[in-house]
Amino acid sequence: MNTYFLSDLHLGAPYFPDSREAERRVVSFFESIRHDAKAIYLLGDILDYWYEYRYVVPRGFVRFFGKLAELSDSGVRIVWMKGNHDIWIYDYLPSELGIEVVDGSLTETIDGKRFFLAHGDGLGKLKPSFRFLRSIFRNRVCQKAFSAIHPRWTVPFAYKWSRHSRKTGEDRGIPDDRLLESLRRFTTEYHSTHPEVDYFIYGHIHVLSREDVDAGCEMIVLGEWIHTFSYAVFGEGGLELRKWSGGQG
């Protein structure tokens, strides 16, 4: 049985030519691994935008959520780590789908190997503007105020923000090696005091990367499911990076 790691699906993103096809691709992948997956770790930005209201379920993602519920019901452990796009998951998805939601990093022992898992947006040296935005997005008072605005205004605004953020990031050449280097520095410093970690796995910066940190320790960045459709799988043969093309997982 294998353990799978994915990040940055960005389901629902306005820059997908066909959002439903993007969702079907992910569902097809999950269907292909359902018989050999014992755990699936989703390392953030799985949805391009999600905000839970107390009594209202946001529209969309029915096929995706249904497949997660099916996998969870069949005994597959599913861990969803919040990213910077799907921060506002509260109790609905965990209680409805039977998944675990983690805000921050997670250290796990899997088949005898030690893993440090994180989306990656809050690690390393952060720009003051980004640090300020993270504090606003996670502030409970700001979240309460945001939830009081009707979704007809907040949802279009959120998707417009996402589209603008992606476009300006591409214009500036982001993601780039500076972001990767920031993760390298964090990883090296953390590993110096936690030498028991064998694998550091991140998402967020939309590059597919695998490199040695030290003897017996690796840093993996998972890529994304906008163009690359990449993921990691860990089993008896160790850890592999793969790309989904519609065949077998």
Describe the structure.
There is one protein chain. This protein has 249 residues and is α/β, with parallel strands linked by helices. The protein is built from seven helices and eleven strands. The strands form two sheets. A six-stranded mixed β-sheet has the order 4-3-2-1-10-11, covered by helices on one side. The protein has a five-stranded mixed β-sheet with strand order 5-6-7-9-8, with helices on one face. Strand 1, helix 1 and strand 2 form a beta-alpha-beta unit.
Low-confidence stretches: 168-175
Q: What would you call the structural class?
A: alpha/beta
What is the distance, rounded to the nearest whole angstrom, between the alpha carbons of the first and last residues? 13 Å
Largest sheet descriptor: 6 strands, mixed
Helix content: 25-40%
Strand arrangement, major sheet: 4-3-2-1-10-11
Summarize the structure.
It is built from 7 helices and 11 strands. By secondary structure, the chain is an alpha/beta fold. The chain has a 6-stranded mixed beta sheet, with helices on one face.
